């Protein structure tokens, strides 16, 4: 009897199904399939990357399937952890990409959808080995990996503050302490325009210079 497979996600090049042990990633594009297999095979040999990227257990070259270690955690795109955890994850991913770069690979596609909430970095379908790049392209790819790690985590911290601001707005912002709390959240998330888009009209607080939104009329 075939083992039950659950749908885990769909990406740019195919679909990922899961069994208890494996995440089975099918990739339509032959070049992308081989690039990801090469990256995992090379990086899985590096002891210091254990626990930082999934293990590739095997492949089916005919069906272009990768049998990856199944990670039972949401991605940062599916669920945002609290802010201190996000900062820890950012630090961990920065260390991971620095090891990956030392090993002569760049990731090429760092975003919230390619990082698990445990801090594991995955999806090497855009990875490039240093030996196939010009010196300039190699420099650029390394910079892009570092920049993307910082900017996506920063964006996630902003989203977290936006979530907190919405919760505060929905529960009412009467009283100076709550208004000050909201002003502080908005100052750091720079989210007033986003809140205005969500229908929270922007008004100016009486007690400070920061503009803040108030809850829309029901
Ligand atoms: N090893 C894994 N364990 C658990 N889920 C996974 C694993 N790999 C991928 N997934 C799920 O499948 C989705 C798509 O996988 P990903 O490798 O990012 O594909 P793509 O290259 O198409 O973006 C991910 O967002 C995640 O939800
Ligand atoms: Mg992906």
Plain-language structure description:
With 218 residues, the chain is α+β, with helices and mostly antiparallel strands. It has helices at 30-43, 83-102, 135-171, 176-189, 192-197, and strands spanning 6-10, 14-18, 22-27, 56-60, 65-69, 105-106, 128-129, 202-204, 211-213. Bound molecules: adenosine-5'-diphosphate (ADP) and magnesium ion. Adenosine-5'-diphosphate binds at residues 8-9, 11-13, 16, 18, 23, 25, 54, 68-71, 75, 113-114, 122-123, 125. Adenosine-5'-diphosphate (ADP) binds at residues 8-9, 11-13, 16, 18, 23, 25, 54, 68-71, 75, 113-114, 122-123, 125.
Architecture blueprint of SSEs:
Blueprint: E1 6-10, E2 14-18, E3 22-27, H1 30-43, E4 56-60, E5 65-69, H2 83-102, E6 105-106, E7 128-129, H3 135-171, H4 176-189, H5 192-197, E8 202-204, E9 211-213
Antiparallel strand pairs: 1-2, 2-3, 3-5, 4-5, 6-7, 8-9
Helix pairs in contact: 2-3, 3-4
Helix content: 40-55%
Which radius of gyration do the C-alpha atoms yield?
21 Å
Shape estimate: globular
Strand runs, count: 9
Report how far the terminal alpha carbons are from each other. Answer: 54 Å
pLDDT < 50 runs, ≥5 residues: 204-209
Oligomer: single chain
Mean pLDDT: 87
Approximately how much beta-strand content do the residues carry? Answer: 15-25%
Largest sheet: 5 strands, antiparallel
Task: Tally the helices.
Answer: 5
Order of helices and strands: EEEHEEHEEHHHEE
Strand order of the largest sheet: 1-2-3-5-4
Bound molecules: adenosine-5'-diphosphate, magnesium ion
Structural class computed from helices and strand pairing: alpha+beta
Protein name: Protein kinase domain-containing protein
Organism: Lineolata rhizophorae
InterPro entries: Kinase-like_dom_sf
């Amino acid at each position: 009897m075939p083992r039950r497979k659950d749908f885990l996600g769909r990406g740019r090049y195919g679909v990922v199904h899961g069994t208890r042990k494996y995440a089975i990633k099918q990739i339509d594009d032959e070049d992308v399939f081989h690039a990801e297999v090469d990256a995992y095979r090379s990086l899985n040999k590096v002891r210091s990357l254990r626990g930082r990227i999934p293990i590739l257990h095997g492949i089916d070259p005919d069906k272009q399937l990768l049998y990856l270690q199944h990670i039972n955690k949401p991605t940062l795109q599916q669920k945002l952890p609290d802010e201190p955890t996000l900062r820890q994850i950012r630090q961990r991913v920065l260390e991971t990409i620095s090891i990956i770069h030392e090993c002569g690979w760049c990731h090429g596609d760092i975003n919230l959808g390619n990082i698990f909430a445990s801090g594991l970095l995955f999806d090497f379908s855009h990875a490039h080995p240093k030996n196939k790049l010009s010196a300039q392209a190699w420099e650029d790819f390394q910079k892009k990996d570092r920049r993307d790690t910082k900017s996506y985590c920063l964006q996630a911290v902003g989203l977290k503050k936006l979530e907190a601001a919405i919760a505060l707005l929905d529960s009412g912002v009467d009283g100076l302490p709550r208004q000050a709390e909201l002003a502080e959240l908005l100052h750091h998330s720079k989210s007033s325009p986003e809140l205005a888009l969500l229908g929270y009209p922007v008004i100016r607080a009486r007690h400070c210079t920061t503009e803040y939104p108030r809850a829309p009329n029901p």
